[in-house]
Write the C-alpha cells for this entry.
Amino acid sequence: MPAPDTSAHAAAPPLRLIAAGGTFDKRYDPVAGQLTFGHSHLEAIVRRARLDGGVTVDVQMQIDSLDMDDDHRQQLLAACRGAPEPAIVIVHGTDTMVDTARVLGAAALPATIVLTGAMVPYDIEGSDALFNLGHAIGCARSLPPGVYVAMQGCAFAWDRVRKNRALGRFEAIAPGSDRAGPTA
Amino acid sequence: MPAPDTSAHAAAPPLRLIAAGGTFDKRYDPVAGQLTFGHSHLEAIVRRARLDGGVTVDVQMQIDSLDMDDDHRQQLLAACRGAPEPAIVIVHGTDTMVDTARVLGAAALPATIVLTGAMVPYDIEGSDALFNLGHAIGCARSLPPGVYVAMQGCAFAWDRVRKNRALGRFEAIAPGSDRAGPTA
Amino acid sequence: MPAPDTSAHAAAPPLRLIAAGGTFDKRYDPVAGQLTFGHSHLEAIVRRARLDGGVTVDVQMQIDSLDMDDDHRQQLLAACRGAPEPAIVIVHGTDTMVDTARVLGAAALPATIVLTGAMVPYDIEGSDALFNLGHAIGCARSLPPGVYVAMQGCAFAWDRVRKNRALGRFEAIAPGSDRAGPTA
Amino acid sequence: MPAPDTSAHAAAPPLRLIAAGGTFDKRYDPVAGQLTFGHSHLEAIVRRARLDGGVTVDVQMQIDSLDMDDDHRQQLLAACRGAPEPAIVIVHGTDTMVDTARVLGAAALPATIVLTGAMVPYDIEGSDALFNLGHAIGCARSLPPGVYVAMQGCAFAWDRVRKNRALGRFEAIAPGSDRAGPTA
C-alpha cells in the first residue's frame, strides 16, 4: 500500500480564516438579555467541520459591520496583505461587507479572498452560518485570485454585488453601478 | 439606479443537488429506536441556506452507501448524464463515496460533479453536514469540469482519494494506488 | 388485556399554557438583525414534548416583561380566573415575573399557577427554555393550589422570591422582605 | 435589604439525578456510524438548566434498557436506598422503565423517585430529553413519596402505567392489570 500523498496542495491550499465579527459570530448574553460579541466561533467550527491541517484562524476584530470604519478596513487589508496563504476567508457583517470587498478588491492582492457572513447568528436555530462558511471555503480554495462576496451559495465578484437590505439578500449588479440597494 | 444583473451565471451557474442517502440524510425513528432513512433534508437546507433560484433538488435514492451496488451507481451516472446543469453535488454515504466517484470519473462527463456526505447526520448535534454541503456547492460552482470528493474542507480529484475508515477521514493518494485505506 | 385507563386525571390534570412573551419566546429577525417577538413556540413544544391531550395553549401577549404594565397583569389575572384548568403555566419574561406573581398570588385563585421563563431564548444554542417549561409543568400538575415562580429547577412561593439581576438568578427571600434584588 | 433565605428546602429539596442510560443518553459515534453510549449528558444539562446547588449527579450505568436484567435493577434499588436525598430522578431507557419502576415501587422507600427517559436522544434535533428531565425534576420535588414514571408531561404511579410500544407512548392502566402493552 503506497503512502498517502500528503501534499496539502493536492487537495486544498493552505487557508486563513479571518474573523471580523458580524451577525455570524454574535452570541446571546443572558444577563444583558441581548446579542453581543464574545469569543469567535471559528475555532469551534474548524473542529466541527473536521478541517484538515493547513487552516489558520486569525481573529482580527469582533464588531458589528455598521460600526466598521476605514481604519478597520485598512486593518483587514493589512491582514490579507501579510497572510502567506493563497486562500483567505473573512467572516464579516453583511451590512457593509460590500464596502470592505471594494477596499480589498482595489488592492489587487495575489490571493483568493472570499468574504462571507450570516443572516442568522451561528448559535441560533436555522442559522445559515455553517453553510456559508463551508461555501466560502470551497470558493476560496477553488476560484482564481481576486476578491469575492460569497452568500446564498453564490460567489459575486467584489465590484458586481450589492446587498438588498429590504430583502436581506445579495444581488449581482453591473460593474460601476450604484451599490446602495433598497433598504428595509 | 440600474437594474440588478439577474443573469444567474454572473454569480453562480445552475446547480443540481442529487440525494443518494448516506449518514448525511439519516433520521432517528423514535418508535424503532434507530437511525433510518425518510425524507431527504436537502429541500429544507436549500431554504435554510437561502439559496438563490437555479438550484434543483433531485432525490435519487435514500440508502446506506454500504448497500449500494453497481446498479445504484449506474443510476447516479445516468442522473448526472441527463442533468442540464453544469454543476452537480451528490450527497452520498462516505463508506463507498470513492467507489461511486470512480464510476462517475471514468465517464468523463462535461459537468463539475462533487460528491460529499457527512460523518454525523444533519439532525445530530455537532453535525458536519451543513458545512460539507456548503463546501461542496462552492467547489461545484468554482472548479473546472471533473469529478471530486469534497470532505473536511478539501476537494480531492476522484482518482486521488481514499477513505481511511480507522480515522474516519479522507486522504489524498497517488493516482493508480490502492484506494482501500485502513479500516477500523 | 384490559382497556387503558384513559382518565386524564389518573396521571395528569388538564393544563393551560399561557404565553406572555419574554426571553423564552423571542425570535431572531434576520432583516432587522435583532431579537423580537413573532409566533409563540408553545404549540411547537407541545408536539416536541409529546404532551398528551388535556393541554390548551393560550397566547395572551408576546412582549418583553419590562414593557408590561398593570393592565397586562390584570389581563393575565383575568385569563387565570377564567381558565377551567386546575393547573396553569405562564411563560413570562424573567425581569418582572416576580411582580406578576404577586398580582396573581394576592388573588388567591383555586388553581396551581406556575410562572416560568428563560434566561436564553428557546431558539438559541444552550437555551434553558425547554427544561424550564418541563419543570414548570411538573410543578403545576403536582403542587397544591397557589402561585409559584419556577426557575433553575426550583419552585418558589410567589411572596418568597426575587430575581438577582446581577447574577441572572432567582433566590428565595423571607416573606415581606424587599423583592428588589441586586441589579447588573 | 434582607439577606436571601438560602435554606435549600425553602424552594427545592436536595435532588439526586441517577443516570441508567437509555435513549436519552445515547450518542452518535462517527467512526462506528451508530448510536452508542459514552459520557452521560446529565452534568452538562445541570449547567445548561442553571440548577442550583443541592443537585448530585450519580452515573450508575449507561446501557440500553432492553439489556437490563434484575441485577441492574437491584443496583438501581440499592442506589436509591442509599441516597440521602428525598427527591430522586432516574434517567432510564423507556422500553423497560415500567419494569424498573415496579422493582422500586415494591420496596416502598421513603423518597420521591421519578423515572424518566426520552423517545429521541438528547443530541438529536427535536429531542424530548430536556423537557422530560425538567418535568421529572418538577415532579420529584413536588409529589409525595412514592415511585412514578414521568413521560409526556404526565406522572404515572408505578403500578398504573405501561408503555404502548406500537405508539411509542405511555398510558395509564388500572392497578393489577397486564402491563405489557401493544408492540410495534
Q: What stands out?
A: The mean pLDDT of chain D is 92. DSSP finds five helices and ten strands in chain D. Residues 161 and 172 of chain D are 5 Å apart (CA to CA).
